[in-house]
Amino acid sequence: MSIKEFVTSIPVNKVGLKDLLGFEKTPRNMLVAVLTLAFIAMFVIGVAIYLVHGHHAYNVSREHPWGLLIAVYIFFVVSSTGLCIIGSLGDVFGFKDYMLISKRAIFGSIVTILAGFAVIAFEIGHPVTMLIYNVLSPGLTSAIWWMGTLYGIYLTFMIIEFVFLLKGDMKKAKIFGLTGLLVGLAAHSNLGSVFGFLNARPISNGVFYPTYFILTAFITGVFIAFILMGFRYKLNFPEKVKTMLTGLAKIQALLISILIFFVAWKMLTDVYGGMPNRAEVAEHIFHSWTFWAEVILAMVIPLFLILKDMGKSPVVLFWASLSGMVGVFFMRYNLVHDTQLKPLQMMKIREYQLSPEWIHYFPSSTEIMISLGGLGLCVAMYYAGTKFFNLDEDEHH
Amino acid sequence: MARYGMALDYKNCINCKACEVACKEENGVLLGADKHRIWVGANDVKGEWPLLDIASAAFLPSQCQHCDDAPCQEVCPTHATYYDENHVVRVDSEKCILCSYCMNACPYDARYVDDRTMTVDKCTFCSDTRLARGETTTACQNTCPTKVRTFGDLDDYDSEISELLRTREHFSLKENLGTNPKLFYLT
Q1: At residue B57, does pLDDT exceed 90?
Q2: Are B66 and B19 in contact (CB under 8 A)?
Q3: Which of A76, A156, A166, B144 has the fewest other C-beta atoms within 10 Å?
Q4: Contact B103, B86 (CB under 8 A)
């Protein structure tokens, strides 16, 4: 089969602009549509401001060089890895109950990582130089190089897997799905190591983040699975979907419990013994509201609601998952901000801008606009995907 | 081919900041408090009146440590940060993508963004200015009125810096991180 024949044989719906705009005009749909368009408009405005003013449009500084856009990039790629894991449950590992979300989750993993790339493109100072010198002079000891390169390969595998899923070729989908999953997990733990390798920052340094990233990716994937299925079935779930979501909820209860153990012991270890540059940072984190937003929204509320009836109320868990995703956003923001909280000082005790205080950072309006824009792009791409492709499970499988 | 380093007799520092001015002038560093390659820190006096620890109020000049095992070089995804032929840690602005990983990885807060090129910049030991012209001192060393700084080849047994490090006790900053700095503080 020639490439042309292969491409033309991919089942794609013929969709015009009229079809794209032809959604049911319910208040909920209208709200989502207006918000999505507003976010995309913000993205355009934010990017325009960035192109004129460069990094001056952001509130990043010498002491806090990574800001909101890095956190949002991590948020999207964690979502992508999570959806890849969820998608793989059915088509790679053969759990039949989860087959019905495979195609949707794999498509979700593609759009989330594309949204992440769209955001990071305006954070990296020279993205074109990056593409050139990533190849011409690769820094093999750099976690960022591995992360970026592996995510590029991962995206390719995800697209190929999605194409085979559309064509119903489950054997090839499984091969590319498994490869993509392994590359994705490697990329994602490398993203954790970007922080874990920072010897200068004792609060982040160590093995914790590379492993924690995989766990939180799985948790994020389950949250998004509830949200995707909630929108797909307008919270009126068929029995088969209910069975799958109950299974996912039980897995989620276990995962969140493990996460609570992880975070509790990390924080206790950080504080224990009062180690300089680590203990006081952890104590500072305990006093920040964003940490408690992460704990309450992403851990306490979803776990409590799942355990209430062992995950048998998918509608409640849809809302719990929205809470969870807001919590996951704070999780990413905290990770980036907390790493940079403590000034490196270097004896600039009274001089320059480095006082022996905590580094303050609050995102600029441009950073917020590009971040929300990323969300808008993600939703828009996903919506277009639901029109162009059949994301439900094929009947003959 | 040399292995350049610097010894700082920091207790001689009088905080005149001539070194900072000379560095900015010689290397065309942008004005602005956060655009600096080198700096002079000032510690607060420790203790309470009348038991003040006068010795704690020393001035502490510093800059990039030109580590032999530089974290900034290890984390760079495009090899924009490299060791030149004299073991000086340099940045190739053509290759720098401004991912800022090096700024986060440097334990010494020695890096900043040059707004003209939108790439990361740092101390070069005046490699592309004074040393390129054949001079043997850095701007900060040359201007220092109390001779705090001694710059030279650590591999040359007869160099002034080698002599100082053989005969004077010294320490480096954050030695526990294993970065092997080539800035030495004489005690």
Answers
A1: no
A2: no
A3: A156
A4: no
Rounded CA separation A131/B141 (Å): 40
Please state the φ and ψ torsions of residue B15, each to the nearest 5 degrees. 60, 40
CATH numbers and ranges of domains, chain B: 4-186 (3.30.70.20)
* Residue B41, pLDDT score: 84
Burial class (CB in 10 A: 0-12, 13-18, 19+), A340: buried
Assigned superfamily of A68-344: Formate dehydrogenase/DMSO reductase domain (1.20.1630.10)
**CA-based nearest residue in chain A for residue B173:** A346
Pairing label, strands B183-186, B4-8: parallel
Delimit the domains of chain A by residue range.
26-59+362-378, 68-344
A139 with B79: Cβ contact below 8 A: yes
Please answer yes or no on whether A133 and B107 come within 8 Å at the CB atom: no
Whole-structure pTM value: 0.93
Task: Band the pLDDT of A353: cuts 50, 70, 90.
Answer: very low
A140 contacts chain B (CB < 8 A): no
Provide φ and ψ at A148, rounded to 5°: -65, -45
A396: pLDDT strictly greater than 60: no
Cα–Cα distance for residue pair A336/A332, rounded to 1 Å: 6
Model ipTM value: 0.90
Opening angle at CA A91, ends A178 and A74, nearest 5: 60
Which positions ≥6 away from B111 have C-beta within 8 Å? A62, B64, B72, B102, B103, B120, B121, B122
